[in-house]
Amino acid sequence: MRESSARTKGKVRWSKLYSFSCLRQGTVEPAPVQQLGGPGFTRVVFCNESHLHKKKPYKYPKNSISTTKYNFVTFFPKALFEQFRRVANLYFLLAAILSVTSLAPFSPASVIAPLVFVVGISMLKEAVEDWRRFLQDLNVNSRTVKVHIGNGLFKDKAWKALSVGDVVKVNKNDYFPSDLLLISSSFEDGLCYVETMNLDGETNLKVKRCLEQTLSLDEDTEFLNFKATIRCEDPNSNLYSFVGNLEFENQTHPLGTAQVLLRDSKLRNTDYVYGVVIFSGPDTKVVRNSTRSPSKRSRIERRMDYVIYILFSMLILVSLVTSIGSVLYTTSQMTKWWYLHSEEDDPFFNPLKPVLSGILQFIRGLILFGYLIPISLYVSIEVVKVLQSMLINKDIEMYDEVTCKSVEAQTSNLNEELGQVEMILSDKTGTLTCNQMEFRKCSIAGISYGGEVNEVDLAASKRINTDLERYHFSFDGSDSSSQSFEMFEFSVPDVRTQKAVLDGVEDVENLSIGNSRISDLGKESVIRGFNFKDDRLMKKKWMNRSNVSDMTMFFRVMALCHTGIPIEDDETDKLKYEAESPEEVAFLIASQEFGFKFCRRTQSILVLKELDPSLGVEVEREYKLLNLLEFSSSRKRMSVIVSNEDGQIFLLCKGADSIIFDRLADDGKAYQQETSAHLLNYAEDGLRTLAFAYRRIEHAEYEDWSSIFTRAKTTIGPIREELLESVSEMIEKDLILLGVAAVEDKLQKGVPECIDKLAQAGLKIWLLTGDKKETAINIGFACSLLRHDMTQFHLSLSKEAESNNQEKAMKEDILQQIGKSYQVTCEESNKDAPFALVVDGKALEIAMRSDVKDQFLHLAVNCASVICCRVSPKQKALITRSVKEYTGRTILAIGDGANDVGMIQEADIGVGISGMEGMQAVMASDFSLPQFRFLERLLIVHGHWCYKRISKMILYFVYKNIVFGLTLFYYELYTNFSGEVMYDDWYMVLFNVLLTSFPVISLGVLEQDVPSDVCLQFPALYQQGQRNIYFSWIRILGWILNGVLASLAIFTLNVYTLSPAAFREGGEVADIAHLGAFSYTCVIWTVNCQIALIISHFTWIQYLFIWGSILLWYIFMYIYGALPPVYSNRAFHLFTEALGPTPMYWLITLLVLIVSLLPYFIHIVIQRLFYPMDDHVIQEMKYYRKDVTDNPMWLREQNNSKKKTHIGFSSRVDAKIRYFRGQLHQKKILIYRSVTNSPLYRSVTNSPLF
Length: 1250
Fold this sequence. Notes:
Enzyme class: translocase
Shape: globular
Strand order of the largest sheet: 16-35-34-33-17-29-32-31-30
EC number: 7.6.2.1
Keywords: ATP-binding, Magnesium, Membrane, Metal-binding, Nucleotide-binding, Translocase, Transmembrane, Transmembrane helix
Structural class: alpha+beta
Subcellular location: Membrane
Active site: 427
Helix content: 40-55%
């Protein structure tokens, strides 16, 4: 049964109020029969007969969806392919195959086990991450909706069980499970409100209306015998079009977008609707706009492949040298050595067949010197990245207490990529904004209310240490804004607050409590939707002002010109409101606070409780609603025509300021100049503005117009819209301007500060939104992506090109606009000027075509800020892919709705906001955040750290494996290519597994060049990752060279120290076991002490792992040597009897350690003394506590490190300072001229005394 509130609202039959085609199906003609059934229009849906869709040709997919990368069948082949895309894994697969032959110098288990372990761990991680996606899909597919099962009964079914043709019932605030045809709603007129934030990012509600022929199907039992057929277009990705017919009761009725409810949009302000499933699962428009989950690899990992190529080339080279040397030495010397001739033929070594033996030696060398290729690097990186992700997830600074959510790394593959981001593509609604509109300011009769000095003005004032004067002098010396004393008085900020700001008082909020002219941008409001503070209007004080009549009419327009419905609030005595757009709700709340409460409405009556200034009391008045001319994107205005209790007829209008100003009467422009100045200020604050105006209409004029309007409304055909437009123009003229109202699409907490910090870190930010251009520009100003002195290029199709609808003309139009804009950027005078590019969806569609795309992107990347509006989800993904391919930069995409999934998956890094628009974006993302502001810490702190950690870790891995692997090669040369292994098998196994693994993991997890607070104070440090300084080819080759030198020092010093004489008192000389143990000890000491020189931030964990690893080597030697010879082989009692008691063993270790580390030590000394990097300077300052003992020096370095940017709060402050200084300079000139032109000055200067 319907609730009473729904019945009350249902009484308003909106079809009789609205004038245009968005709600009247009569203007839509049936689709031609030859079109339906033709290519692209073959869909046939049998309503309430879903069983007919279980077999061909009408069999359509089920309603379940999947965002996973794998399934049970494809997991192993696809995951194995992912693993063996890594070059090193391919090599070790070959080595593992060869290890089962007699060629291998090691046992097969020692080669196969590490490969299985590494690949297995990586595949397990992939499986866990995809399982998480599967569970999220399962959660969505398991949602329930009421489905007609026959006999007029509805039963809950899972979304995944829905079929095409099913009749479903969706309740208020629920999502639509598939694309539906609207049959009826709880409103008697078949109307419903739909929120489409997940699809296009728009916050305003869309109005949908069913066909009049199906209005009677508004109860469960009505569907007992319901049968109909839908013939429509095939599944496609276009969100804004639908073509089809409904065959019902032997009649054909046209269908359009007004009757279609799309999956993932939400039912709002309507108790329930009935609908028929048209498209299900993968056929729905939102899924058609999505892309499959891609496999992403970081730039460092991709470059690491090339490093592996280099190491593999070294491996081939040394194996080739070994092979050639073996062949030459065998042919020239070994044939004469009788003791090399075995009685049995050895298939792997025959001195009489040197070429064959050389080939086999080459293969043996590939396995023997395989330690040059660090297989354990991959598993170590996997472990490190998982631990890094855990630290990111547990960062208390990224925990949101409001939502009780924290950051979550959905994948650990891209941690280091966070430190190399160069461009951010961001959604607007729900990502930057809170989906909440607030009334902030207004300008009535040329006077601005609600605060004039914003945070930018205050910051600029404090920096230049001068008074703020909000009035502006004209060049002729007159004060253009002080039209009256009242206007002048209230346009200057409170002197006491100015003085506090200029004196450095931080608690400005407390000082500004009594000052109504200070803006509270960013402060929380007490009343939801109303964040206005000005004592001149609040508490009925507006009734005492001189322009009370204008104020009364302003508030009356605000309270009457809308489509809202009042709802009683059980918690307070005030009303709540529901309307198509959030701006209307904010205006209704504001009018209620000012004393104009909109109480109720019927089909033709609007009731207000309003303050009567003449009586000083609240009175209830009824206004008869004669006509409603609704808002549309082309009209950009809305009007209502009402008559009051005295019979006077008024047209009340609100709309875009440019539209309203063009329709003002000559005597209605009294406040236009002052209002225009206030509009500029509001726009710079990022506020949405609407101008309010009215006119009084004579009865005769209205009767004439009404008859013409009625004829236009009843016209059927394509000209109906044009007729209505022209007739509306006839009445919406000769308006009298009242003022403007400004609302804020409230930003999330910390968004401007976050964007400012990211800009200083060198990131460019693009805004991609489905909202209209004006809204996007307002948000651009609010979050400091735009500023007042920025040259804006607006790329949009001209009306002629759009009306012709010819591709060639539209393309030429866009190319011409791009060419003109690019020419402006290339002019010498504009080299350092900031530019912004604003593109709408239709122009973007043309601009992204192959023959225009390069020119468009060339212009876009040269602009400081780019805003794309009215873009579809697929366009977002296309922009992301195109920018990534064109620029080659690392792209991060961030959004919170299903409409952002495409760009999140296309970007190098996808970030989902776990906000109010469901979990689709989070499910498809690589990282999820509860709020946009946490992106600052995620990138500038964790991204910076992870980039440096992974870079250092890889370079150190390459270094230590070269040090270890090349000692084997040197021994091969030393022994005339004998193929003998210098080290014991267990030494080889334990090198990467135990003795050097823990220090490198601690480096990758805990290393910090500077603390987190310093990262945020010096965001320019982030640019080291963008420039890839720590993983450049110079550094890679430098570390390879360092490894070569260290290995050479270790081997030569050991060999040539031990060879000439005995190393023990008894005269024993060193054999292979001694030389191997000597060299291995030096390797362990060298690589572990080298990592100690790399680490900047020590904790007890690093100390334990580094020195513990060295100690562990000695413990192992002792235990291994204590085993029986059958197990310990040549190492039996080696440490306790041979090495430990010998002083030479310890002296050689110390000598080799010093010589091996000397090249790197000399390098870092020279670099820090003569060529220090930014982090080196900051480390020195922190070490000497300059941030505490010499704070001015610390602040000076902090300011010097800031990157000059064109976007962000800081850049707006800098621009404002330049503006203030220009104003002050102009005032000085005016003062000087006024003084020098005065008669007194002339008489004094002309005096003989001078």
